[in-house]
Amino acid sequence: MDLAIAGRSALVCASSKGLGRACALSLAREGVAVTMVARGEEALHAAADEIRRETGARILTVTADITTAEGRAAALAVCGAPDILVTNAGGPKPGDFRQWEREHWIAALDANMLTPIELIKATLDGMIARRFGRIVNITSGAVKAPIDILGLSNGARSGLTGFVAGLARKTVAHNVTINNLLPGPFETDRLRETARQWASQSGKSQEDVLQERRAANPSGRFGTPAEFGDACAYLCSAQAGFITGQNLLMDGGNYPGTF
User: Fold this and answer.
1) 165 CB burial (10 A radius; 0-12, 13-18, 19+)
2) Residue 38 φ/ψ, nearest 5 degrees
3) Taking the complete model, does pTM exceed 0.85, yes or no?
């Protein structure tokens, strides 16, 4: 399917690795000019070079912390007025809520709720004026099925979900959609860190924990970043203009509920 977004521009956050990188790659394959943002300069430039070689797309890079006002300003200065915004930031570390102080909660909210909102605020009116915009927030499957050791992420990302639910109904008449992609277990550094935490609590090896999680999933495996990136690209497509305010859960069938 031709997603009809060739020539559009996108800002993809935290895109040097993992799911963010996968989204940047899938959009670049569709002919989108992508601005990639990440904190690690070496990994970011390596990822951008690989995507350029594979796709021939125009790829710009910004080494910045997107969770800061300065980082967002730097990214927007390079990207300009994007047609597509993919928000993403590393989740807070797992742990026990008894260990978290106010500063831990504020950092989680800054990264996983307020940063996406600020980026939406900075880009939304331009999208409305041009009558095309696609905003995809990478959140977490924990929004639907909270994970006990990810309380900081559960709380912050649920706040973003509530905010988007209201705003998305106001923008769709202007052909600007806002949706959330909720990853379950994907083969990423984040998954391995969570497995390490569980392993330390259970006395099992990290590989044993990972294997148990694979076996417990109805699909019998973890998701691949490529699957996630292509789902993101579809939500950014011209054909997805009737989808807004939704939470697309990608978890291999792990969530047991009907709704």
Assistant:
1) middle
2) -160, 165
3) yes
